[in-house]
Design goal:
Helix content: 40-55%
Strand content: 5-15%
CATH topology of the largest domain: Dehydroquinate synthase-like, alpha domain
Order of helices and strands: EHEHEHEHEEEEHHHHHHHHHH
CATH class of the largest domain: Mainly Alpha
Bound molecules: zinc ion
Distance between the termini: 40 Å
CATH superfamily of the largest domain: Dehydroquinate synthase-like - alpha domain
Radius of gyration: 20 Å
Largest sheet: 6 strands, parallel
CATH architecture of the largest domain: Up-down Bundle
Shape: globular
Length: 383
């Protein structure tokens, strides 16, 4: 139950998405500050830093580029904050994957300066949110930090997203689809969201989560076929919006079982090589089985996940469906503060255990009997 009757909604100040939008980086950054600090993913650093240099060549604007060292840890946050301070920068632009973006958020919030987020893949709903996930330097999860504001601008260059591996795009689709089922679970339980503390959802956030599902089911396969040949179509643009903007409604509508399953899976080292959205995909199957969704809706979601080659069984995440593993996952999900409790039913450890077991079996049965694949086979598209 929500602690308050009040509704709350958070969103980036502006959201802009389209092919070649990175060309406008200097224009946007200059409107927020006179000296811009670019924090860039290390493996894209040379390419992006060269591009920024070219964009700035014809201007008098000041800027600094800095490679991100790979982990959103307190040591890295401190290092980057110090670099921003030394440079005298007045606006931060974070460019890269989730960890780079989360570090940029921490630095800009600590210094109380404007923040522009420029994701280089559409693999999670991290870009729009007011949240950072913190790890130790050796990649152990510590926890989440909730910021007082969302990014001032989220700038998405579709051409950049289209160049990222398709696997990341597919994982982003799994992550975004979960938003719908998790929003519904929170609507049915009048659950709390992540805006402030104890607030509940707006009607708008649930409508956006529903739109995410609609787009993904309608345009998901079309988008992958287009991206497989490097084409940017309207379907691609729609799915990017679903993955990045609409998927971020987890913040406003609340999360539930699918993300709780993701969290539980991270305790098993074998799953570390799988992407966030891939683990969430199996979490969706668990949630639908637990909540006893109608067969038609269950089949629709599971077939869609299979058609995108997203995991619907434990073995697809390198986890044996053994009694020991299922019990371990159920134990993690049953905790008092677990988001797995954000469902409209009484939860017990046994119920969670059996939902995981039946979800794994459901995924297996559908995989054996449904071979439809919506995107091209071939190693260049695979894992
Ligand atoms: Zn997520």
């Amino acid at each position: 139950m929500a602690i308050s009757r009040a509704r709350a909604f958070g969103a980036p100040g502006k959201y802009i998405q389209g092919p070649g939008e990175y060309e406008n980086l200097e224009t946007f950054a200059s409107s927020y500050g006179d000296n811009t600090f670019y924090l860039i993913d290390s493996f894209l650093f040379d390419e992006i830093a060269a591009r920024i240099q070219k964009i700035y060549a014809s201007t008098a604007s000041k800027y600094v580029t800095e490679p991100f060292r790979g982990e959103c840890s307190y040591a890295e946050i401190e290092r980057v904050t110090e670099r921003v301070r030394t440079a005298g920068a007045t606006v931060v632009v974070a460019m890269g994957g989730g960890k780079t973006l989360d570090t940029g958020k921490m630095v800009a919030m600590a210094m109380n300066i404007p923040l522009i987020i420029a994701p280089t893949s559409a693999s999670t709903d991290a870009p729009c949110s007011a949240m950072s996930v913190i790890y130790t330097d050796d990649h152990q999860y510590i926890g989440c930090v909730f910021h007082k504001r969302n990014p001032d601008l989220v700038l998405v260059d579709t051409e950049m997203i289209a160049k990222a591996p398709l696997r990341m795009f597919r994982a982003g689709m799994g992550d975004a689809l979960s938003t719908y089922y998790e929003a519904l679970a929170n609507e049915r339980t009048d659950g709390v969201n992540y805006v402030g503390s104890g607030y509940r959802r707006t009607r708008a956030s649930v409508a956006m989560a529903e739109l995410a599902r609609e787009i993904l089911l309608e345009d998901g396969a079309k988008a992958l076929r287009a991206l497989a040949c490097g084409a940017i179509t309207e379907a691609v643009e729609n799915v990017i919006e679903a993955n990045i903007l609409l998927g971020a409604q987890f913040e406003n509508a609340g999360s539930s079982v699918a993300h709780a399953v993701h969290g539980a899976l991270t305790a098993l080292p074998a799953t570390h090589k799988y992407l966030h959205g891939e683990k969430v995909a199996f979490g969706i199957v668990v949630q639908l089985v637990l909540e006893n969704y109608p067969e038609a809706e269950l089949a629709e979601a599971v077939k869609w996940l299979i058609s995108l080659d997203l995991p619907v069984t434990l073995d697809q995440l390198d986890v044996e469906a053994s009694e020991a593993n299922i019990s371990l996952l159920a134990e993690a999900l049953a905790g008092e503060k677990s988001r797995a409790r954000a469902v409209p039913m009484w939860i017990t450890r046994r119920l969670l255990h059996d939902a995981i077991k039946a979800a794994d079996r459901t995924g297996r049965d559908f995989r054996e009997n449904f071979q439809g694949r919506a995107w091209p086979r071939g190693s260049e598209y695979g894992k």
